[in-house]
Specification:
13% strand, 6-stranded parallel sheet, alpha/beta, 6 strands, single chain, 11 helices
Length: 207
């Protein structure tokens, strides 16, 4: 797994490199200090995952992520910050970031990277508890308007709960391939990019 680390504290960035590479399955392909570094290094290295702080001098991590995702919709970005800021969390969710962790939960960083690499979205326990409230539904919503079937509704709810394709398949007695096809169809109907946006959409409109 090739990871790019961007944090405006050099000591933190170097420490993260040491922690990640001690795992044996992770290679840190670059270190950056600001949002513009993230964009430049992402273009140069094409990492599997970008692990990035949010508040940095110059361009913020959120602005850099937005730019990167415009160029590469498949980019996997995991935010690592000391700030459990509601606005940051909502922005990260809505733009399609794959996760949002607090630096205090350093022991969860490596497992989170592996989960994101495997296609899951990861939000720390403290963050996950906030999401339903932050994205609480505003106004009425009807799946019928989007031609979403009952089966698709059930899959959306399981995605929002954080289940992987395999877990959804086991729960609904389907194959993983069928679940992938369902999710692809759902994303197309709702004009969304990925599972993270789908979970945000659910909590905002239906949760």
């Amino acid at each position: 797994m090739r990871v790019l680390v961007v944090d405006d504290d050099k000591l933190v960035a170097v420490s993260l490199k040491t922690i990640l590479e001690a795992d044996g399955e992770i290679t840190v392909v670059g270190l950056g200090e600001a949002g513009d570094d993230a964009i430049r290094l992402y273009r140069e290295q094409h990492p599997d995952i970008l692990l990035m702080d949010i508040r940095m001098q110059g361009m913020s991590g959120l602005d850099a992520a937005e730019c990167i995702l415009k160029e590469d919709q498949a980019a996997k970005i995991l935010f690592l910050t000391t700030f459990s800021d509601d606005e940051y969390i909502v922005n990260a969710l809505n733009m399609g970031a794959k996760g949002y962790l607090l630096k205090q939960d350093f022991e969860s960083i490596v497992p989170a990277l592996k989960a994101v690499y495997g296609g899951q979205s990861v939000f720390g326990g403290q963050i996950m508890g906030k999401i339903p409230v932050l994205l609480a539904g505003k106004g009425s919503f009807s799946y019928h308007d989007y031609d979403i079937s009952e089966k698709e509704q059930g899959i959306i709810e399981l995605v929002a709960e954080g289940l992987s394709n395999r877990e959804i398949a086991e729960k609904l007695y389907l194959s993983e391939g069928t679940v992938r096809n369902y999710i692809s169809t759902i994303l197309d109907k709702l004009k969304l990019r990925d599972r993270t946006q789908l979970a945000a959409f659910y909590y905002k409109n239906c949760g």
